[in-house]
Structures are given as structure tokens and as C-alpha cells.
Amino acid sequence: MTRVNNIWESAELRAILDALPSHAGNEAAAPMLPRFCYTSPEFFEFEREAVFARSWVCVARTDQLAEPGDCLSVSMAGEPLIIARTQSGNLRAMGGVCQHRGHVLSCGAEQPNGLLRCPLHHWTYDLEGRLIGAPRMGDMLAGLRDTVRLPPVRIELWHGFIFVNLDSEAPPLAPSLAKVEPCWKGYEEADLVTVPPVTATTPVPWNWKIQLENFTDAYHPEFVHRGTHDFAPSVHSEDGVAFSPMAEGDNAIVRSVPMLRPDGGMMRDGWGAEAMFPPIESLAPTQRSRLYFVMVPPNLQLMFAPGAVSYTLLIPTAADATFASSDRVTGGGWILPRSTVALPDFAERAAAVREGAGKIWAQDVPVNNAMQAGKRSRFMPEGCYGPLETTLVQFNAWLLRAYRREMPVACSQGALASRHPFTA
Fold this sequence. Notes:
By secondary structure, the protein is of the alpha+beta class. Helices cover 25% and strands 22% of the residues.
């Protein structure tokens, strides 16, 4: 019996799934999740299969694999993957496990150029996933070359982001992100380049959903981010936060807030008028007057500002451990004009942006820690949402759709089916 089978058959998981609130597709009335959805190791393993193994997950930018022979080792839903630029120039995603004895493969300086070599027995693959060498295998080698392949994984590109999906039958990504297309208008005319985020080496001690909830919550900046977010208020006498409707099949949650003056952005003390990254001239006036916050669940956060697009990648590894990589946490995670990166003082500007983002992050950390602690409490309320929390309702709707997509019919009626839900 596999690890997932054991998790699925646990009494704790059955109780949590039975307690999930009803939803029936109503994005305006998706309630809060039970607290155990944020603390249970069994439920986290369920989410790995139901959410991360069945969704389009962002793993990198195409800039990071610019040349044939480039490759990256990534992890998704606990699975090691290889993302590679083949000699023909195509991008390919593959399972990152040697098909001999199961040793995890990785990209690195020690690997032959344009090849993947297993450290255990030096079985070697090209970046198309084909076995090309297996020492000491004698007459078996020819047959192995004909049959052994690293398993292919679905890959899709979207505005320079690389997404992968372990579900061979999942709908394509791009149509589900149509509502984000207006946010990109005017940016890609500016000859954009990527400064990827520095990869986090220490996880934050809270559930991945709390990280995304904090990002998309328009209610808390007024209270938590005093002094760092005042320039971009959710509530303003002449304007305020704007929410995009959420439809069935959407894989994006979008809100925007006004800035007190056009062309603002991140400064040394947070959001402000004297942005460190110059404004992009090809943007529309509305884009130069507002900040757009976009969540592409389950693991990508985007912020569209007049001078740059910043992004965060999340990799959850436990119910209370999430690796977050962005300018707020580690540094980088920017998509901005080549002309900005070429400025003689770009390093100083980037350092100021990291400092300002870090001050916002320093305000978020105790809040997120306290939210995770609250989820462990027997006094955790069922809760309610206010008008400034529309995006949280939308996120819950997205989650409940993902959960129920993988639950057998009997589960929603109060008893689990006997078969494993992720097999035919």
C-alpha cells in the first residue's frame, strides 16, 4: 500500500474531508475552511495530490534556461523534476528519478554539458530524457536505449513563466488565466528581463494557504502595514480596492489598489512616490496609477507596479513549512525593462527595493505566525468575511473545487469510497 493510500484511509483525513463546507460553485459564498486544513499532516498529503499534483504549478522563468543544455532541478508535490532546454531549443519537463534504481537526478556543475548522469551507476540521459549510456550493462544496453526514458511531464509557457502539471488530463493553462491578460498590456513592449528570486533555504513556519491569504487580503494593509503601505491604500475617499469577478474554471485571483500619485513603487521604506525602478512608458495611465495583485494558485504571486512586475514562488513541504522566494523574503523575483537593469546604479536601487520589501515582510511575519498558532487552537472560530476580503472568498472557492474534484462521491455523502481516489 502506498503512502497516499495510507493517508487517504486515515480517520483524521476522513473527518476533515467530511467537515469541508458546502460550496456548489458559488464564488460569493465560499466559507472559511476548518482549522485542521492548515495543521493536519494527513490533510497536507491530500493537498499534495488533490491540489499540487493536479494544478499548473509555476517552477521558473524561461530566462533561467536561455541556452540549449541549460537545466534546473525543481520539486513539485514532493516529486523531483528536471526542466531542460534541449539541443533543439525546446523546453522539456521530466521526472527527475533515474529509471534504473530510482536515484534522484539533479542539474549541477558536476553534470556533463547537456546530459544528466546518475551518481549511483552513471546511467546517463540526454535532455530529451533518452537513455544514452549505462556502463557494464553489456548486450542489454541496446534494448535499454530503445525503451528507457525519463517520464515526460506536461509543460506550458505563459508570459515567460514555466508551468508544469503532473495531471496528463488537466485542461490547458492559458485559457484559465485570461482575466490576467489586461495586466500584461504594455509591459512586454519594454524588452523585459528577469532577475529571478534567490532560492529560499529556510521555510517559513506556516501553512502555504496562510501565505497566499495574506498576499491577497485587502483588509489588513491599513492596520498591519502602517508606514509601508499607506501610499497604496485599500480604502480611499475617491477610490479604493477593485476586485475581479471569479468564474468557474478561473485559475487567477486579481485585485488592484490605487496609489496616491502615479508612477509610484517600492522605495527603501515600502510603497511610495519616489520609486526605485523607473516607470515603464508603454503602460496605460491606469496601470501607472494602481498596483495589481495577482494570485495564480497554488504557488505563484504577482505584483504589477509601474516600474516592474515582482513575483513570489512557493514550495510547501509540510503543513507548517513553506519555502517562499521573492524580494520580500530572499531577494529578487523581478521582471523589468532591460534598460532598468542596465542603469549604472541598479545594484543600489535593487538593494533599496529589497530593504523596502523586507520592511513589509517584517510586518507580515508575526501576523502569519499568529494566524498559524490560531489554527491550532480549539477556540478557532468558524469566522466570517468582510467586503474587503472578497479575494479570500474566491481563493476558498478555488480550493474547494480542487478538493472536491479528487474526492469520491461517497465522501461528500459522509463516507469514503473504498478505492483510492487518485487511481482509475
